[in-house]
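Aim 2, interim progress. The first record below pairs a target sequence with its structure tokens.
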Amino acid sequence: MAEKLAFYLDDIQTRAGKWINLILTSLVLLSSVIFVIETYPIPGELTLILARVNTAILIVFFVEYIIRFWAAEQKINYLFSLYSIIDLIVILPLFIGNFEISYLRLLRWFRILRLLRFVESQVFFDRTEGEDQLIIRRIIFTLFTIVFVYSGLIYQVEHPTNPQAFRTFIDAVYFCVVTMTTVGFGDVTPLSQGGRLLTILMIISGIALIPGQLGALIKELVRNANRVETPCGGCGLSRHDRDAQFCKVCGTLLNSSPLNPSRSPDGES
């Protein structure tokens, strides 16, 4: 039974597997939205409702983790795998939520990392897309994750001691983007030691990661813009390089190429 459930947790071909993955992805996004909403002044009743929804989501994630661990053939290797560590970080607040340990609340912002296992899947995307679309998706997710996690962390650290500057999550996003792009307006500054340490990490990350990621994104967008609509009769991939003779996914001859509509595998017309 556990093996069957674990199969559907990773499967995106069957209807059941696709729906399960869609639900899990939606729960990750919902939990992230809840955390952002909680940074704003909201009525006590809504806070209670959001807390209950968040607890229910954590329980679902905990059950998913138990199923994956139970079905894993090499449990020790799974326990120390990247996805397992991310899942543990996510569900840890379920067991320590009643303890007044403020820094443990930082773990909530790593929940968005659970989307990592869905980024390269075809749950939301066309299965005929090429490698360039996959690369663009990775880059956009990387940039979004860096900004989201850092914004959540700096808000969690600075809001208690500096509530005027870091009032909401949007204030934290503004500070994060300005800091990581090394613009440094100086209108918002951290006061706590933890906030200053995070700022240093933001600057280092911005210098080391942002230019490379943006450069790669622009490069892929330009490459994608130079491709033409040439549907493959084998796998259905629609966009190929202008001089492509065969599909880069399945190797099928592209007879409908606008440059050479009647090519043969030997290049004869």
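The second target in this work package is listed in the same format:
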Amino acid sequence: MPIPLTGGVLSGQVRDNEGGPLPGSEISVLDGADRRVVHVEADPFGRFSAALMPGRYRVRVESGGFQPVTDGVEVQWGSHAEMGTVSLTEDPELRPPYPGLYTIDPDHSSVRFIARHIGMSKVYGRFNRFSGQIRITEPFEESSVDVVIEAASVDTNVEARDTHLRSPDFLDVERFPELRFSSMRFVAHGGNRWTVDGDLTLHGLTSDVSLDTTFLGQAEWNGERIGAVASTQLHREHFTLNWQQTIAKGLPVVGSTIEITLDVQAVRQG
């Protein structure tokens, strides 16, 4: 980044305690009045930079699953303030949970989706009935999760639209009453970030899916609980959900990409 005529440049690199880069780390620069004047994310190599007016600042560096670090820095006119390597230590409370079998609590979990309507607004929906289990093992990579969703429980808060979604044009719930996800592997990326790769069976077809997962920690409340949020994108055509109408200039009524979010709380068994 070139040094601006009216100030200076702050830069650095974020790494974990093993020396690996932490892309996506959040860097907040606070002035003397504790106001955030800059907020940037680290690039794929963990590097960051920002142009600032001359002065003293506090720099807070955060990354999911790691303990944040705050340090002071002075930016001078026409100069480059290099913070060097900022090392973050894993937060022990957000390491993978203890091995065991955990049952998903449907009363404190949700399976939600978002679809585009005529390329403008978003339609929000959910499935109201589902069940599943998460088995955490040693080694962690051999853990597994299995989820079963009742297709007829689709709910977008519009009765006519839900009826259409249950019809043969879309989910065809009479022929295919369930959606099933079974994991193939867990991958830990450091901190509280995981990828869960698996197979999703929908509308009679099975396709591989990767869930970007954030572990939210463990807590004691009516049992030992763990929490996580996972997201992915599905393309309807992969599951032959091909119904479509178009309006002027060929604009589709329903977008082909569906965003899926799972907000899960599970209770340890035994």
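The longest helix spans residues 159-166. This observation will shape the mutagenesis plan for the next reporting period.
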